[in-house]
Amino acid sequence: MATRRQPTPNLKFEKALQQQGCLAVAGVDEAGRGAWAGPVVAAAVVLPFLNRYYGINDSKLLTPLQREEILHKIYKIAVDISIGIVDVAEIDTIGIGRATYLAMRRAINNLHAQPQYILVDGFKVGFAEIPSQGIIDGDRKSVSIAAASIVAKVARDRIMAELHVLSPEYGFIAHKGYGTELHQRMIKCCGVGEWHRRSYQPIKDQIKAMANLEIPC
Q: How far apart are CA 92 and CA 39, in angstroms?
């Protein structure tokens, strides 16, 4: 039995908005929301209304090499690109939900010109001054959102590579701060570091466990 081919992002949403007079549509997505360490990064991408965008897909479906190659293509054809970053301290202060919104807001604000409409991956996130639409699995349906997912993912991976140089004991280069088995072992071995999100329950649990070990018998 043949495997059903995974649909690729298309221009359905963008072209519908173009017909309504929206000539600058920004796709927005984030990377790192579920990680235990490092920042959350969002990207906003405004693409020209071309007929096809070969290779642009949900960043999670691409290899690191494919993401890097397609990123160069995105930067060549995009009308506008920007990113927004919210660091660990901010995440722990305001929570990941608000931090994700803030990263998206920063990405939009960093665009050279305000878009006329925003397509966001997931549920609708309100931007008072700009009309927007949330699209479930948007990075697999909208080319603009898929492009933003690649920009955000590559930008965050590069940040995690830099954090790996600063704190190689945690192996950030391998797991990018997500709660993999390797990362869990490294935390148990080395303790919770400055790049970890202490507001996250798994990190709280590890801090508590380490504190209990330090209590003298």
A: 11
Residues shown for the chain:
217
pLDDT digits (tens, 9 = 90+) for 68-81: 999 999 999 999 99
Q: What confidence tens digit (pLDDT) does each residue in 8-31 have?
A: 898 899 999 999 999 999 999 999
Q: Rounded to 5 degrees, what are φ and ψ at 139?
A: -70, -5
**CA dist 72 → 3, 60, 76, 78, 184 (Å):** 31, 17, 6, 10, 34
CB 134 within 8 A of CB 125: yes
pTM over 0.90: yes
* Cβ-proximal residues to 151 (8 Å cutoff; 6+ apart), any chain: 43, 45, 71, 74, 81, 83
- Tell me if 67 sits within 8 A of 55, measured CB to CB: no
Which CATH number applies to 12-166: 3.30.420.10, 2.60.120.260, 3.20.20.70, 3.40.50.11810? 3.30.420.10
d(CA 70, CA 150): 8
Count H helices and E strands in the chain, helices first.
Answer: 8, 5
| Sequence-distant (≥ 6) Cβ neighbours of residue 141 within 8 angstroms | 7, 9, 10, 12, 13, 135
Crossing angle (nearest 10°) for helices 181-190 and 201-213: 30
Q: What is the DSSP letter of 63?
A: -
